[in-house]
Amino acid sequence: MELVWKKIIETESIVVSPRPVWKCRTCDMYEKRLSCPPFVPSWKETKEWIFYYKRSLAFKFLIDMNEFEKEKREVIKFLLDKEKILFREYPFVYTLFPGSCNLCAECPVEKGGRCSKAHLVRPSVDALGIEITSITEIDFSESALYSLILLE
């Protein structure tokens, strides 16, 4: 994984709508991972609470699709580590995952079990209804993951 860029964005520029959530419904992880619907706040709730944050950090990571799960796990761990550091300055800092959680190689929730890392799971950007295209232009020829860390 390669961090291509990170930039500060004003949260007022973020568009929240039902469209990304509808896309979630076509994903194999829908209703299976704690970072996905119905386990996360609705897009309407997100629209309400996201604007209590004034700024956020947006990230773009390039990944090798042949190592997708491994590299996505590295991205998620990077984001959680960054959140922990930022907590010192921003007590309400909150990371949003780039897609479904894959902290574990095999998800116990998918098999009806309990998540041993639930305290680390964050909602997916799409699952909350955040339109990444309101933050950046997406180049679909790239294998990229996008994420946000809400700051203040």
Structural account:
The chain is an alpha+beta fold and 152 residues long. It has one domain (2-150). The chain is built from three helices and six strands. It has helices at residues 19-24, 43-49, 68-86; strands at 2-10, 15-16, 55-62, 94-96, 130-131, 144-150. The strands form two sheets. The protein has a four-stranded antiparallel beta sheet with strand order 1-3-6-4, covered by helices on one side. Strands 2-5 form a two-stranded antiparallel sheet.
The overall number of domains is 1
* Beta-strand content estimate: 15-25%
| Sheet having the most strands | 4 strands, antiparallel
Q: Mean pLDDT score, rounded? A: 95
Distance between the termini: 27 Å
Q: Total number of β-strand segments?
A: 6
Derived structural class: alpha+beta
- Oligomer designation: single chain
Quick synopsis:
The chain has 152 residues and is of the alpha+beta class. The protein has helices at residues 19-24, 43-49, 68-86, and strands at 2-10, 15-16, 55-62, 94-96, 130-131, 144-150.
Topology of this protein?
Blueprint: E1 2-10, E2 15-16, H1 19-24, H2 43-49, E3 55-62, H3 68-86, E4 94-96, E5 130-131, E6 144-150
Antiparallel strand pairs: 1-3, 2-5, 3-6, 4-6
Features:
alpha+beta; globular; 152 residues
